[in-house]
Amino acid sequence: MAAISEEHYRAAFTAQTDGIARIAETADPGTPIATCPGWTLAHLIQHVGKVHRRAAATVRRGERVPDEELEDTVPPAGGEGDWLRAGAERVVEEIGRRGLDAPAWLFARPGTAGLWLRRVTHETTVHHADAAFSCGREWSAPPDLAADGVTEALEFFCSPGAAARRPSLKELRGRGETLHLHATDEGLGSAGEWLVERTPDGPVSSQEHRKADVAVRGQAEVLLLLLMRRAPAADPRLTIFGESSLLDHWLDHTAF
Prior knowledge:
The protein contains 8 helices and 5 strands. The chain is α+β, with helices and mostly antiparallel strands. A hairpin with a 2-residue loop joins strand 2 and strand 3. Helix 1 runs antiparallel to helix 3, helix 1 packs parallel to helix 4 and helix 5 packs parallel to helix 7.
């Protein structure tokens, strides 16, 4: 787990949830979410609230909880904002009760309550961006949290079992091709540097500064949006050096 405190994760998780809740209270629930094709704001609200309730239930039990056993997964009409906040509060309460190191199933692999806090923080942050962009609202993420979101995404894409869940990730195997991401925010140090090497067994990530076949520079929050397919490689806030086709190939095979 990244060197970010529980308090910092909790504050970011609460703030990003509240951002979605405030949008839910003032925007048309039928607004299309441009970054999630086929979704409206209502779909996004229910998805985020359900994710939070799944996280709380999983941390409480320590094991996978089937969808049919989750409670309160449909927001009340007109009360979506409070419903979202209540789900986030459940997550925080359960993690506080069990402790960060408590074992808890995490998508077909061993996990902990602390890793669930990290997971819901980043998922909520990205979906807040989805809602904000589509409803004409402001969005931002603290540089250290955004950088940790980049790290978490690369950890997933490069994990040995990821390709079993997402066959498209098998296309990321390579012959030593390299991708470098560099966050331009001040003070991040090595936490804002990432190198991915595509090996015959799959991609391998590390946090280091090294010349690569393709490099991308930009603020951490924009790099996170890029990896999550919420910002295009052509975004003017990004600078790309080298073989841009390698970046395009990576993005084409890492869509959620």
